[in-house]
């Protein structure tokens, strides 16, 4: 049963195309804001836990910030602040040098 209860009932959209054209100049892209975007926590986990030290010897911890291919995950995804991201990158590179982390993961080769 298709029973539409007159959905297109908009009182203010009265005809006159010409006017609408003129109005298009602003072209506000506002519209309905895209719903709940998938937002990861926007907090740096190293700032949250000040006592956590970014240790290059702790490869388990560093692995969270490295993709499967062995690449360092950008901070916009992990939410790490730039200061800690820098420390993290430094640590990851050290860990790579010590062969604790891969430069390139085996799977990609
Ligand atoms: Zn931080």
Secondary structure elements and pairings:
Blueprint lengths: L16 H7 L21 H4 L10 H5 L11 H4 L3 H16 L12
Structure description:
The chain has 109 residues and is an all-alpha fold. The chain has a domain at 40-109: Ribosomal protein S18 (30s Ribosomal Protein S18). Helix content is 33%, strand content 0%. It contains five helices and no strands. It has helices spanning 17-23, 45-48, 59-63, 75-78, 82-97. The protein starts with 16 loop residues before the first helix and ends in a 12-residue tail after the last helix. The structure holds zinc ion. The site of zinc ion (ZN) has 6 residues, from helix 2 and helix 5.
Task: Give short descriptive properties of this protein.
30s Ribosomal Protein S18; 109 residues; mainly alpha; 5 helices; binds zinc ion; flat
* N- to C-terminal distance: 57 Å
* Main beta-sheet strand count, sense and barrel state: none
Strand and helix order: HHHHH
Q: Roughly how many Å is the radius of gyration? A: 25 Å
Overall residue-averaged pLDDT value: 77
- Secondary structure class reads mainly alpha
Cα shape: flat
CATH architecture of the domain at 40-109, please?
Irregular
Helix content: 25-40%
- List unreliable stretches of 5+ residues: none
- Counting DSSP E segments of at least 2 residues, the number of strands comes to 0
CATH topology call of the domain at 40-109: 30s Ribosomal Protein S18
CATH class of the domain at 40-109: Few Secondary Structures
What can be said about this structure in brief?
This protein is an all-alpha fold and 109 residues long.
């Amino acid at each position: 049963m298709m029973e539409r209860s007159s959905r297109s009932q908009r009182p203010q959209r009265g005809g006159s195309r010409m006017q609408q054209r003129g109005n298009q100049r602003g072209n506000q892209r506002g519209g309905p804001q895209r719903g709940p975007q998938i937002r990861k926590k926007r907090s740096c986990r190293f700032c949250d836990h000040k006592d956590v030290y970014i240790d290059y010897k702790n490869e388990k911890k560093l692995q969270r910030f490295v993709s499967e291919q062995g690449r360092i995950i950008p901070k916009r995804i992990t939410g790490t602040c730039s200061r800690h991201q820098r420390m993290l990158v430094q640590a990851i590179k050290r860990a790579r040098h010590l062969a604790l982390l891969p430069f390139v993961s085996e799977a990609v080769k």
